[in-house]
What does this fold into?
Amino acid sequence: MNTKYNNLKELISKSQYQYIFFNVFYTVIKFPFSNIDQIYYLMEKSYNKEIATNVTFMKLRKEAESIVKNSSVYNNITIEKIYDCLNQVFDIDFDICQKLKSIEEKLLIDFSSARNFIKEIYDTAVKFNKKIIFIQNTYYNESTIINILKSNGITKFDNIFTASNKQFNEHLTNLLEFSINNLKINPYNILYFCSDNYNLELAQFLDIKSILIPKTTDKLNSYTLKSLPNSLINSNSFINSSGYDFTTSIIANKYFDNPFRSFTEGSAYNCDPYYLGSCALGMHLLSIIYWILKETTDYNKILFMARDGYLVKKAFDILVQTNKSKKKFPKTEYIHISRRLMMPYIISEYSDLLNFPSLNLFKATPKIMFDLLDFCTKDINKKDLSAFYNDINLSENTCFENKENYYKFIKELYVRFYDKKKHEQSKKALNEYFKNFNNNYITFDLGNYGRVQSAFVKATKKNIDALFLFSNTDVSIIESQKNNFKIKTFYEFYPNGNRSFREYIFSSDEPSCIGLNKMNGIYELKFDNYKVRDLAKRKIQQGAIDFVKEYCETFKNHIEEINFKNYEMSLPFETFLCHPNKDLEIFKHSYFEGIFDKENIFDYITNYINNTLV
It folds into this structure.
């Protein structure tokens, strides 16, 4: 625990404070939603099993609560009266109302967990034999609050006061003042851990020493989500689903359990790769796998293509394994594939060589190009190679730097060294390696032009559809029409974030496959020897996977009931890619891994943002 905790511990030990008061909801106890009324959303399925109406249960439940509040004498509102209202005003069967009330109370207990930082404070108060008082301004019964506390290891307390208490309902006063009067204690002897500014001001008015414990979601919003742009959209109406609230609450509960943790100025993610992963990438990843689940109901298997599909497959498998639905989900497989492996089908004609994919003229050299074109070039002796370089006036390790030099190189290479027979043999090798795939499969890749997918379709000789996060619409449509496959895209637009940065964050650290070797009559993948151990990326990905695990475990019985918009869940990640600000320092020791890249990410993205994004 930090210095703030030690200060609070010292405060509790003082003899002056004989009574330690705690609010319950969002102070001692946390939930995976920012407001209790989100629980009604999770009751929709149970409600629909009992009765068929066009209006949602959430709307009915809120309306009943509002009616009771507006008609109650003084503070007299209870959970029983709310469900009586559903019965009497909305004509919902009494037995159904009682069943729904029990479900609501059970869900409240099931989804509760102790806030670790405050649990430590509570344990300290117990250790010093302080009188523990819980107060909660709620219409839930005292017995329900006690069950919530006990189910989370909070068993020792002296009194509990709730707004549903009959004695309280007979007094024209607030709950804090009522509890003090009831116990006949001096406010001077109270130390109060309160949940919001209203209770803080009330305590100060009563001369009670009080400590504000902000909700975890309030801390998340103030530090991280406040940076989301609203120039193009009204974020208040766009980010409004229950699913978004559930996810951000889980993240907030984990990272801001201690509301006093330090936070780096100018940073949305505290320059913490794990937090960046669990929040921005984790939410984006969850949205992607939900989308995949919906889009693949008619397919037998999803092929997650290396290396971009590595993280998404891990997350998707978690979602399927924890889903309690009896539905049959498609199988998954991780397949090693790369642009370089599929080059025999990507390069078909001379014009393809002139327009070599992702060519960086300031990084590419003749030697690199010979390595990449090994699948279609003859074996060349040193004498012929030396003569070739002499004739085109280029050296093997000098970058091309302009199209004229590159075109001159390709023209002479094609005339002297192109081997059509070897090219066809390379294609047949891919046919043999990918022969066991079926039409009813679908691939997942981050996407872009669709050229690798086209090559894969040609190699398999099957019309295998594709899931892309995004696509260069014109090129990808041409590729899909030409090769008779469909593309489903997560985004209906081309996101502004740097594509290489996105691919780096999603991809695995494993070596890339660069070709095939034939061993004992069987084709096996050949990998490059570029090994990297990127600790920052591993922490980011671990944070994302841990978040998906926690979400799926928390809502395992409600996964198919929860919905959210793809874009609202992805907005934190897309905002980070375009405006990483101080959090970009996470990548000071990280490098891109592509054929023509291997650049420092911090330097490259800084330059990209300064020169490309405005």
